[in-house]
Design brief:
This protein is α+β, with helices and mostly antiparallel strands. The protein contains 36 helices and 24 strands. 47% of the residues lie in helices and 16% in strands.
Length: 931
Amino acid sequence: MAVHLIIAEKNIAARRIAEILAGKAKISAKKDGSANLYEFGDTKVIGLRGHVVEVDFEPGYDNWRSATHPPRTLIDAGIIKRPTEKKIVSILQKVARKADLVTIATDYDTEGELIGKEAYELVRAVNTTVEIDRARFSAITPDEIHRAFAETKPLDFHLAAAGETRQIVDLVWGASLTRFISIAAKRGGGNILSVGRVQSPTLAMIVDREKEIEAFVPETYWMVRLDSEKDQLPIEARHTHGRFREKEEAEAAVAGSLPPLTVDEVIEGEKADRAPTPLDTTSLIVAAGRLGYSAANAMRVAEDLYMNGYISYPRTDNTVYPPSLNLNAIVSDLSQGVFAEDGRWVTGNMRQKPTRGKKETTDHPPIHPAGYGSPEKIGEGAWKLYEFIVRRFFATLSPDAKWKTLKVNMTAGSEPYTATGGRLVEPGYRTVYQYSDAKERILPKFTVGDTLPINAVHLDEKETQPPARYTQSRLIQKMEELGLGTKSTRHEVIQKLISRKYVEGNPLRPTLVGRAVTDTLEQYADTITRPDMTRALEDHMNMIKVREKRSDDVLTESREMLDRVFDQLEQNETLIGDDIMEMTIEESIVGPCPVCGHSLRIRRMGSSQFIGCMHYPDCTFNMSLPPGTWGGAVRTKDICPTHSLHHIRLVRKGARPWDLGCPLCSHIASNTEALAMIPGCDEAIIRSLHEQHLYAITDITSKTPLELSGILGISAQKAEEIILGAGDVINRLRLRTEMKKFIRDSITPRKGRSPAKIARALIEEGVCDIVALGRADPGLLRKAGLSETEAQEVTMAAKEAGDARILKETGIPAVSLKKYREAGITSPEAFLSRHPAGISLASGVSIETVIRHLALISEQYNRPPPEKITKGAFQKGQKELTDLPGVGEATLQKLADAGVYNRETLLAARGDIPGISPDVISKMKKKAETA
């Protein structure tokens, strides 16, 4: 049977394309690890996960500290491709081997074409003759998909080459510069200093703007205005001079503003309020910023809407609808549900030609709705953005709004004033689009010569304001103006700056480390921080698309540029490292140590992090922090009024920041409950511990009874009891933590029911470890929020995990435990209920080892130890039994389980061995007697 393989960029796109092309045919979905395959008829559709291969340096360049391959050698290092999604690649190539036609259906842009080329190469590696074509579409809707598959084209290798060139350029620049700067500043692990071709000039813009704000000197100026009224309507008029730089001039204007206020001129006019133009990627991100979306979140939501067929492709520079786009059909499709009334209005008032922006391209149309969606279908998180896209589309097809304007020039004494008003007379596009201000200022009717009262004259003192910090959306606009990055990557660059802790907040401001890296690079290698070089490379990579440049030429140019950068860097390596270290040490200082007064600092060791005193080892005060996997600890600007320490925030990519607050307040709160669990450790003792800056249980267990008695003023015996009790509490807390992790791994969170809430409810009922959880009443688990099935599954799994822990703590090594588990012997009860011979045969563990392990378990459960059987005697006994006719492995196991492991025990056995009939036992005994 002929096989048509379709390759989509993501699983959700693959599923949608399969549903559209299959029509009424049944689709079978198969999942193998991370690979999903959809089949109908002779067609198979597979979804990638974006790039399933990546570019990397050839082997030998992994070691950052290598003397053979220092950072500069990465410029000319060989580039290889390696799979990142091995399961998807495996399934793709398996299907491709038998395919008669392959259609690449990835997103149609530079990145999508590169992903398509990667898929093309994977197919060609296993099937050199199959026909491969390309489906290009701008929306995942039935009309677009059917059209794209009816009008397939060849893959655009020049477009893909531009993407691949950018991929290699960014790898080489990012890796070589990041390694150099990080090594110079003695940074490593999760604390490296990232430098990039687009990232660094973008960061420099934010830093430079902050310097402008800091250097800004406000200037005082004065504004003069007066209040009047006519026909019972209040009027505010402004002095036509505008800003007065000298206060004396402003005061003179106030003094000269004498009644009456006389109307000198009335100017009536009309103003056209132009309907907005179609959306490209940048204008979408800007608008989404006003709706409360970050740049990265806006693109993530837009991508989801596109994949589900609600909007067109969200990565486009086009602001002009192509003639082929059926605008009327889209309006008709949207004219239902929540948009029914708006759609009818647009249909009845549609402008002759839609509005158009300044940029026109041919790859994709502007972003527009592709299908009707309701709030229920789309979900609260995406609805605001989808509704905006729909209303923006409606607005581009609607007539302009019209305003009546009124300007009234007046005189008060010798001083000129003016008042302006505006009234919306034709709402036009504003009927369906409420995303821009349309504030009317209604003035009464005026006639030249009218005289009005002056109710008050105001002298307002003001100051000039510094330039505003960049919002994410404004920064993306600026990046586009300067040619930094692409429409697909600009939001990712900003997100990387945030995740690297180079910038924070919105509007964006640089952190200490972001500023330190930028200041140092601007001093010693300023070409990295300027947009010129990056813009030139971007222009040349775009020329690859239209065959005006070759990839090899651009890569050579990039390497030459980077060589010049390293000429600057290597001359100043020591100065660069010293500067960054000196400027960034402050970023980790939290405040004064409560014990010695020296500075406390955030410290990291691998994935663990804590706050320690910089006067160590003379002062050993420290506070633990959650592990780095929960998020990197950074200080915030907030300071605790009690302890004068900066608050701490945990920041992790892809997750919301977690604010810990004051680290010492948090440290005290999290340990007080544990201290109270220690027998004899009452409030007075806890207060004494805190006065001596001992907050954690480990602070107690690290002391000798004599030291603790001296600190607390208690007897040495009492101190020893507290230390022993503290050790016991530490063990109990460890078991409790182990149970919490088990519940977190076993329970699916639901609304109103988190694993932490379940664990808390169980602990309150006295279920504090996995062993107790395995023995808990299922009713208790249901009360904590689990279903009956979940309660059974959790107790069963907890019993197994608890039994394994008990056996391990008994002294049975992991290698033996694994063999016992594979034989189904998973609990102490299972061990004690079986004969050592049966356990040995079932698990493959030698008889002597089994007996030793059983002795350990028996001692723990106050049972008599098993009889000893030597290895030699056991092997001899097994031979005696297998020599008997009809005794195979299965019978041997049944005999061993019953304690029959040699001729002697067989003759002594009763005739009721499970699984063996009494007649067979009798015959075996007769044979054994005569043997």
